[in-house]
Specification:
Layout lengths: L8 H17 L7 E4 L3 H5 L15 E6 L12 H7 L3 E4 L5 E11 L5 E10 L11 E4 L2 E5 L10 E9 L5 E9 L1 H15 L2 H12 L4 H10 L5 H13 L6 H10 L4 H21 L3
Parallel strand pairs: 1-9, 2-5, 5-7
Antiparallel strand pairs: 1-2, 3-4, 4-5, 6-7, 8-9
Helix pairs in contact: 4-5, 4-7, 5-8, 8-9
Length: about 280
């Protein structure tokens, strides 16, 4: 369980530096890599700067790989680059390798050690048979993710600058899932695992659009003829169906309110915000 108090600036800055490092050394593949997951809200609404509205970021990195367009043969594969830069396969409690998941350990300038998890995802369709959980890219596996098929055509570009783990100040360009595709992937993810962070991300995206709820409705209403997207929206609607449904409760839990009144305000606002937008979208 990940809650707001865990998202210290030291931890999120360390994770931010890993994004910059990855996109620096994977530059030749960057056209076929899209950032998904918990960092997307932070980068998507660049106009949000106020401390009380700023997104918490993330403690790990999720990258979607467009395996259909990444060349099958290359003198230096993605795995080669990751291993050369100190990334290692994660292992489960029994010591077995977790496919599509890596970690990078480094010490920052304040002598704090960080271990950051990096997961690679891929489209469900095409490639391996439907009963397989992964797509093969070079000599690595990327985990299939529901809704990932949408992100490669529905993304925006952002420019990031930060110090990499080695201390070098670097600027990179990065493709980031847009509102439509991240809401789809988050809807499926929350339905699958019920994560407090996923619920917070959905609520935050609906609550903090630079053009208000009208901006959310305008962007998403263009996509309500897409079957996969409607499935995701219906899952979100069901999760926020009632005030005490899992969605509103998970959002409130993420904020860790100390007072019952504060919890009630957050829970109600997330419930009302999601349902108000769903009503306008006719979901």
């Amino acid at each position: 369980m990940k809650l707001k108090s865990q998202y210290s600036s030291a931890k999120t800055n360390a994770c931010f530096s890993i994004i910059v490092e990855l996109m620096t050394y994977l530059k030749k593949y960057s056209h076929n890599i899209v950032l998904v997951g918990g960092w997307v809200p932070y980068f998507l609404y660049g106009e949000i700067k106020a401390e009380e509205e700023e997104h918490v970021g993330s403690l790990d990195v999720d990258l979607a790989l467009n395996f259909l367009l990444i060349p099958e043969q290359d003198y230096q594969t993605i795995t080669d680059i990751l291993e050369e830069r100190g990334y290692k396969n994660r292992k489960d409690r029994r010591g077995n390798i977790i496919h599509a998941s890596y970690e990078r350990t480094f010490i920052d300038r304040n002598n704090n050690e960080h271990t950051i998890q990096v997961d690679f995802l891929a489209s469900e369709y095409g490639g391996s048979s439907r009963n397989k959980r992964h797509q093969r890219i070079h000599d690595m596996l990327a985990r299939k993710g529901r809704g990932i098929d949408l992100v490669f055509e529905s993304c925006v570009e952002r420019e990031l600058e930060a110090n990499m783990p080695n201390g070098a100040r670097t600027k990179i360009k990065l493709k980031v899932a847009n509102l439509y595709s991240i809401i789809a992937t988050k809807g499926f993810a929350f339905n699958e695992r019920g994560s407090e962070k996923d619920a917070y991300d959905i609520y935050w995206l609906f609550k903090n659009h630079p053009k208000g709820e009208a901006g959310v409705i305008k962007e998403l209403s263009r996509q309500t003829n897409k079957k996969l997207f409607i499935q995701a929206l219906n899952l979100i609607k069901e999760s926020f169906k009632n005030l005490d449904s899992l969605g509103p409760v998970a959002v409130a839990n993420f904020f860790e309110p100390s007072e019952a009144e504060e919890r009630e305000i957050i829970q109600r606002d997330s419930y009302e915000t999601i349902n108000r937008i769903m009503k306008y979208l006719k979901i």
